[in-house]
Design goal:
five-stranded mixed sheet, alpha/beta, about 25% strand
C-alpha cells in the first residue's frame, strides 16, 4: 500500500492508495485565514486516520511518496523529514513527488485539455512555476519566476493554456492578460489533492531515503547567523 503526503503548501494533505495508485482514503487540513499551517501537528494524525479509513495498518504500507516542493521551506522540510523517518521505521521504499506536477495532474482533466501551468505563490513577489503539455509531459522544469515573465507562458508551447495553484489566483491579472485561463478562486484545482499525489507516488521510481530531499528551487529566506 502507498502512503502519500504533501506539506509544501499551507495545506497538509495525505492519501492512502493501492500499489497501482487507486485512492482509498484521504485526509487534509487547510488552515483558516490567519491560522498558521498545521503541518507539524496534523501530519501524523491525518495519516493514521486515512490508514484507518482504508482498513490499512501501518505495517501494510510498502511505499511512502512525499511532496518535495517547491513551496514553503519549513513545510517541505517537515514533510520530507517525516517521510524519511517513517520509511526508516517501517523499512519501506520512498518516492519523490513534485508538488507542482501534482497540481498540474489534478487540473488536467477532460478531452481537449490545454497545456497546464502549475503555479504557487512563492512570496517575495515571485511564483514557483512548472509547465506541462496536454499529455502531461514537462515543458518547463520547476523554477522561480518574477511576474513579468508570466507573459511568456503562451510561447512555451503551442495550444491553449490554463493555470492552477494559489499562484494562479495571486497572479490572475498577469495570466489572463496573455490568454491563460484561470478557474475561480475557490476551485479545487488550485489545491494539492490526494488523488494525484497517490498516482504520482505509484508511478515514480523509488529513491533511497537519503536521496529524498526538498526541491527548493531558490535559496531559502533565512540564513544561518555567523
Amino acid at each position: 500500500m502507498i502512503l502519500a503526503l504533501d506539506t509544501a503548501t499551507p495545506a497538509t494533505v495525505v492519501g492512502v492508495a493501492r500499489p497501482d495508485g487507486t485512492l482509498l482514503a484521504q485526509r487534509r487540513h487547510d488552515p483558516d485565514p490567519g491560522e498558521r499551517p498545521g503541518h507539524t501537528q496534523q501530519l501524523l494524525p491525518l495519516a493514521h486516520a486515512a490508514l484507518t479509513e482504508a482498513g490499512v495498518a501501518w505495517s501494510d504500507v510498502t511505499r511512502i511518496g512525499a511532496g518535495v516542493g517547491p513551496g514553503t521551506f519549513t513545510g517541505i522540510r517537515i514533510g520530507v523529514a517525516t517521510a524519511r523517518a517513517l520509511a526508516q521505521g517501517l523499512d519501506v521504499e520512498t518516492a519523490a513527488i513534485s508538488t507542482l506536477q501534482a497540481i498540474a495532474l489534478g487540473a488536467a482533466q477532460g478531452r481537449g485539455r490545454p497545456n497546464v501551468l502549475a503555479i504557487l505563490d512563492a512570496r517575495r513577489g515571485e511564483a514557483f512555476v512548472a509547465a506541462y503539455d496536454a499529455r502531461g509531459t514537462e515543458i518547463l522544469a520547476p523554477a522561480a519566476w518574477g511576474p513579468e515573465r508570466l507573459a511568456t507562458v503562451p510561447r512555451l508551447h503551442a495550444g491553449s493554456w490554463s493555470a492552477a495553484g494559489d499562484g494562479a489566483v495571486r497572479f490572475r491579472a498577469e495570466l489572463e492578460a496573455v490568454g491563460v485561463a484561470v478557474a475561480p478562486d475557490d476551485a479545487d484545482l488550485h489545491r494539492v489533492s490526494a488523488g494525484p499525489l497517490c498516482r504520482l507516488a505509484a508511478e515514480a521510481p523509488p529513491v533511497s531515503r537519503d536521496a529524498l530531499v526538498p526541491e527548493y528551487v531558490r535559496a531559502p529566506d533565512a540564513v544561518p547567523r555567523r
